[in-house]
Specification:
5 helices, LDL_receptor-like_sf, Jelly Rolls, disulfide bond, receptor, 7-stranded mixed β-sheet, lipoprotein, Putative low-density lipoprotein receptor domain class a, alpha+beta, about 30% helix
């Protein structure tokens, strides 16, 4: 019985933890933006390109040596396109990042970036289709600090004249009329290009970046609050279980103690009845007068002092 109860409460605790994780993932921390590091993304895949389907991604590189790989990103919908924007770009002259507007690293490339490429020169890159392929090669030595940080976002342009009514933005529409996934808002990454997905325009809490509750960040505060609620639920459940078990054990103990007491009382009643039948009751013995004490009950001869002792006083129980 005790083992079954422990198993039951273990399942309850596990369900509470899974529920809290589900709330964290799809509630306060809903975030479909993905982070990739080029070295781990292309590890051991020099000749086989990687395919990733994304709504948004942050791709970073930091002083990789002897790297040669290709990775292809795809949108969720064929109606979407990709927007690529560099937040950092510092390549060595022997390193090349080539971007292709398609699903393969062949044919005419869109840009070929190297040491002479700067963020301002490159600007924002837009694809014509729903695929983009990056081919990155480095030599045996890269200076410290070389690399890039690339923001990739799947979007729909709602200003296009051929956009029909059923293809209008049903997610988040940026100020620049780009339609992106609602899950990419308020995640600290500028996916719109004009940063409107990180401001009050996207209903972000305290868009100035100083959002804190009791000195803690909003995400950390919500996490701690959820953990506290789960712990309280578990504690209350354990307390209720202990109280119920104590009450049940107390009732069982009282029932177990009442049975011997009833048996003793019954035995005493039978013994009293038997004794009364044989020797008479206590009241009967007290009401009966004792027999006279044998001998001379008159005054002693000689006229001495006589003591009168009642006969009842000579009766001993």
């Amino acid at each position: 019985m005790a083992s079954a109860q422990r198993d039951h409460w273990s399942i309850v605790v596990l369900q509470c933890l899974l529920l809290s994780l589900l709330i964290c993932r799809h509630g306060a921390f809903a975030d479909r933006n993905k982070y990739f590091h080029i070295s781990s993304l292309c590890a051991g895949q020099k000749h086989y390109p990687q395919y990733k389907k994304i709504d948004g991604a942050v791709l970073t590189s930091e002083s990789e040596n002897n790297l040669e790989c290709a990775v292809t990103f795809q949108t969720d919908s064929i109606l979407q396109r990709f927007m690529l924007r560099f937040e950092r770009l510092a390549l060595d002259c022997h390193d090349h990042l080539v971007i292709f507007d398609g699903a393969h690293a062949i044919g005419n490339h869109k840009v070929d970036l190297s040491c002479r490429s700067t963020r301002s020169d490159v600007g924002t890159i837009f694809t014509q289709g729903n695929y983009v392929t990056l081919r990155y090669t480095t030599d045996a030595w890269s200076p410290q600090g070389n690399g890039f940080k690339l923001i990739i976002t799947a979007y729909k342009d709602t200003t296009l004249p051929d956009m029909k009514q059923d293809l209008q933005c049903r997610e988040f529409e940026c100020r620049n009329s780009f339609c992106i996934s609602s899950d990419l808002t308020c995640d600290g990454v500028n996916h719109c290009g004009d940063n409107s997905d990180e401001t009050s325009f996207a209903s972000c809490i305290d868009a100035t970046g100083a959002s804190q509750i009791l000195g803690l960040g909003v995400s950390l505060f919500v996490t701690l609050l959820l953990v506290f609620v789960v712990v309280c639920i578990i504690g209350c459940s354990v307390a209720v279980l202990c109280i119920c078990r104590r009450q049940r054990f107390g009732i069982t103990a009282l029932q177990a103690g009442a049975a011997p007491t009833s048996a003793v009382l019954q035995m005493q009643g039978n013994s009293t009845f038997s004794t009364g039948a044989s020797y008479g009751g206590t009241a009967e013995r007290l009401s009966e007068k004792p027999p006279p004490y044998p001998g001379n009950n008159g005054p002693p001869p000689g006229g001495g002092i006589a003591f009168h002792v009642p006969q009842e006083a000579l009766y001993y129980k």
